[in-house]
Amino acid sequence: MYNYKHETVVEADAESTFAWFEHEGSFRRLMPPWEVAEEVRADESLEVGSQRVFRFPMGPIKMTWVAEHTGYEPPHFFSDKMVRGPFWSWSHDHHLIEEDGVTKVVDEVTYQVPFGPLGNLADRILGGRLVRRRLAQMFTARELRLQRDMAQHAKFSEVGRKRILVAGSSGMIGTQLVAFLDTGDHEVWRLVRRPVRDDAKELQWDPSSGAMDEGVLEGFDAIIHLGGEGIGDKRWSKKRKKIVRDSRVDSTTLLSSAISKLEQKPEVFILASAIGWYGDRGDEELDEESDPGEGFLPSICKEWEAAATRARDSGIRTVFIRSGIVLSGTGGALGKMLFPFKMGAGGPMAGGNQWMSWISLDDEIYAIHHLLMSSDSHGVYNLTAPNPSRQKGFAKTLGKVLKRPAFAPLPGFIVRILFGEMGVTLTLESQKVMPNRLIEEGYEFLHPELESALSDTLGAWRDLKI
Predict the structure, then answer these.
(1) pTM here?
(2) 41 and 466 Cβ atoms separated by less than 8 Å
(3) Do 249 and 300 touch, CB atoms closer than 8 A?
(4) What is the side-by-side order of every strand in the sheet holding 268-274?
(5) CATH number at residue 284
């Protein structure tokens, strides 16, 4: 048997910290940001007998992990054990020790590697470092998420909790946003296109056919729309462009119209947009006052934002978030880059002089939270880090974080052949976008620099203690 211990210091009392763990969303927030994990079930309790189930890839197969809670003494202790999963055995105790309003969370894990004596022998040959490194990565990620989430919620502790409806909740951003808001004790509902689950806070709509019971929107303090077909998922045929456009414009028109007719209107409507609004602008520094560009994405973004006119004109505080490249180790642009870079085949594209305006996933979530909770925030906001990078600099930094060479060039004509107009627009066009309004409002970026953002989302901290 092996033992692992990790300590996290949280600037909050034990009761508040324990409450964060008790929310269903904590399960998702504690998942390492580089793990492609699918949440199957999470009971709404840490009490003895409750379970949390998720699946994650292990090579070509998906492994299921079933954790069952075995101890529950709020606000100072809870524990769980692995009922099914990759370890021979796994037991995890969580101790919360408070002193002078500060809480130390002590994680103690007792585990046995797979395959019994054979697994023990292999682990001893490797000095136990392989498993311990994975544990150190996982618990460092958990530590950072817990500390940061608690700090962000504390910033608005004097503001009342909200009843929030999120459309597009299953995407990369929506999944984490819903989980984060839930840990802040907000009442979060999902607006979904599939049939609703009886055991979940879900409401149904079908924007493709214009079908929605407008009455279900009554009583929400905030409505957030993040939905839309993936821009970079497939090559842009004429049909695909129409799907990308309609999934954004038509759904926003439907939602905006319905919101404007409500007797009890929400306090705020937040609409996802994109820095595609600005088009290909070379070295020009762009802010929220910059004019739109020309081309497919700028035209969509203009229609997309205009579709919210009815909600805005009805007196609802309306916020447009123009997001840059959101960095996540499990998806988006970075997710597509990882394989060639890990193979040492990454590098500058078409010379690499084009600007990339990026933002870490947690900054994306925390910035949306800031705009949600700040009653004076309205209008357009660029959600990008304050230090955009040229593509060749981005490639060099990613290679450094991964400890791989990053000098293999990819000519622009190859990008066009492989990915067509979509690839050229998303990878070769240049946008140097600044988040001026967020900075003016006092938002402090968690990751203003690229290297720290990449290290965080990939679990590649240089000072990792094994």
Answers:
(1) 0.94
(2) no
(3) yes
(4) 202-204, 187-192, 163-167, 222-225, 268-274, 317-323, 379-383
(5) 3.40.50.720
